[in-house]
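Allow me, if you will, to draw on your knowledge of protein folds for a short while. I have a record of one protein: its chain in single-letter code and its fold written as discrete structure tokens. I should value your view on which stretches of the chain appear to form regular backbone elements. Thank you for your consideration; the sequence and its tokens are set out here:
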Amino acid sequence: MSIKKNLFLALQEQLRTVDRMQWVDKNMGQVRLLDDTGALVPMPAVLIEFSEAAYARTGAGVQRGQCVVRFTVLYENYADSHADSTNKDVALRYFDFTEAVYKALEGFEYPGCTPLTRMGEEEDNDHSNFIVTNLIFATEITDDSAAQKTIPLGKSLEVNATFKTPSSRPEDTTKTDFVIP
């Protein structure tokens, strides 16, 4: 099974533990659909994208890749955050939610990957009534899906074995009454 598929599933489960999380999905352009068609995505939500990876061979079909994983945090917000707002605390809750997502991901470990490390964060402010924040993480993935499971030797090996009979062994002369408890 694909290392990225398994990592995605593990990240999805990890993010579901974040308080108030409604939706975790693979990023397939849902933000654009929200803007263009008003399609519904339950919020708060996180979309996961493996955005870039640079791989190098380590031998025998194994590759190690420096991967960037982008987490797009979507948070619905109709409240005002200006200085005199009466519901400013509601408007600023997305900071707490984004921080909870960061805490759930920072140092997250999965077999075949190094712990996730945040590289950056950026806000996308081109949307009405929802906030988009991109959390950018790095990990190193070891992909052994193309690794050779057996090493071909080129020829079949034949083994001829000759077993000695027990009588051909020297007699045991180490008999003693000493017993190790």
